[in-house]
Amino acid sequence: MLPDESIGASAELLLLQQSGSTHHSFRQRGKLSEWQENVAKLAGGNSRLVLALSTAFAAALIHPCEAESGGIHFRGPSSTGKSTALVMAASVWGGGSAGYVRSWRATANGLEGVALAHCDALLCLDELSQVPAREAGEVAYMLGNGSGKSRSTREGLARNAAHWRVLFLSSGEVSLADKIAEDGRGKRAAPGQSVRLIDLPADAGAGRGLFEDLHGFESADAFARHLKAASSSTYGTAARAFLRHITGEFESVRDAIVKYSRQFVADHVDEAADGQVIRVAQRFALIGTAGEIAVGAGVLPWKPGTAIQATARCFRDWLEARGGIEPAEITDGIDRVRAFVAAHGMSRFVPAWEQRTADQIVRDVAGYRKREGEGWDYYVTPSAWKDEVCKGLNAATIAAALVGRQLLVAPEKGRHRTCVVRVPEHGRQRLYHVSSKLIEGSHD
């Protein structure tokens, strides 16, 4: 159901009833062939652009495939092509004077209405930095969960909460985790938030920002300006052609999604991968398969396999930026330990094995340090490990993960992760022995 058209066979007249204005962005301009030639064709050879366009088509498949709502966030410096990718993807569904791309600059309540208006369609949100830091995490959960707040009527009765299904593309110079941290209250992004809004580096690594193939244009800037202009002059036809192709064929579409999603996960995800990684892989698989279905329908002018290959490339880049296939709690915890040692290694750790001068005064002692080759080993007290280094995390789990990487020295026998160490002038103590390899590994 679109504001001005019902697609698919039906014996009755169907109308889209909305409580708000009839003005909408699901408009059409130009011909599909013009959009294919001037917009979609130029996405070829550019993994992020192929991903963005494929996401636009995948948005219509959430309902028939019973997939999760969620988003992909293109993160990177300004002028790298992030907004261009959103404008191109938006042109699949519509445009016009009001534009299809929305801004993150809104409250959670405001974005709830925006999400509802884009149910079963693509939502584009530009510049994450504009959303209030205190609401960033809440909004990510809300959009990904597909449900708004529960409210009451004037009589105190429960009002039906808004529900939607949506895939959304986002852009910004900062990640969701960075935005949440701006709140200044020590908040950190939860693993569930990083799954709902996948943080993908916008830079494709070709030295041209988000772009890899400029298709003969003299510069990335000229290429971006052409794509934006073309996307603003022809739009809205591709989504309708795609919808006409899949309506009435939901069973075969669902079967294709299931088949290729399983194959995608089998090809690109290690068997030992955490469930969070598998969920992200499934979303990439949905997006890639949607792109291939659009190619098969003659809507996207690409060679078969283009969408899957580009999606797989983006998934690998996400996995590399994430730091591996383990739970986010583990990778975040290891980063926390490394950051603590890097920040306080010289100021809060007593050099007990070294000859000290009178001016070497250590305050708020978190442990001891010992020179090992060109680096330092750190011995952290159990209280500092639990209350500061691993605050808000499972300290024992982080210790076990570090032991497994040989970054934390533990006794060969027993379940203890701490070692009994004789510290000069401080006696025998149980301490977490952090190897100098932890800091050395940060440069790999």
Keywords:
about 450 residues, alpha/beta, Rossmann fold, 2 domains, five-stranded parallel beta sheet, 17 helices, elongated
List the SSEs and their pairings.
Blueprint: H1 32-43, H2 47-58, H3 62-65, E1 70-75, H4 82-90, E2 102-103, H5 108-117, E3 122-126, H6 133-145, E4 151-152, E5 158-159, E6 167-172, H7 176-181, H8 191-196, E7 197-201, H9 220-233, H10 237-246, H11 250-268, H12 275-296, H13 306-322, H14 328-344, E8 349-350, E9 367-372, E10 375-380, H15 382-389, H16 395-404, E11 408-409, E12 419-423, E13 427-434, H17 437-441
Parallel strand pairs: 1-6, 1-7, 2-3, 3-6, 8-9
Antiparallel strand pairs: 4-5, 9-10, 10-13, 11-13, 12-13
Descriptive overview:
This protein has helices at residues 32-43, 47-58, 62-65, 82-90, 108-117, 133-145, 176-181, 191-196, 220-233, 237-246, 250-268, 275-296, 306-322, 328-344, 382-389, 395-404, 437-441; strands at 70-75, 102-103, 122-126, 151-152, 158-159, 167-172, 197-201, 349-350, 367-372, 375-380, 408-409, 419-423, 427-434. With 444 residues, it is an alpha/beta fold. It folds into two domains: 32-322, 3-Layer(aba) Sandwich (Rossmann fold); 328-441, no CATH class. Helix 2 (47-58) packs across helix 13 (306-322) and helix 11 crosses helix 12 (275-296). The longest helix is centred in the middle third of the chain and has 22 residues, at 275-296. The relative contact order is 0.12.
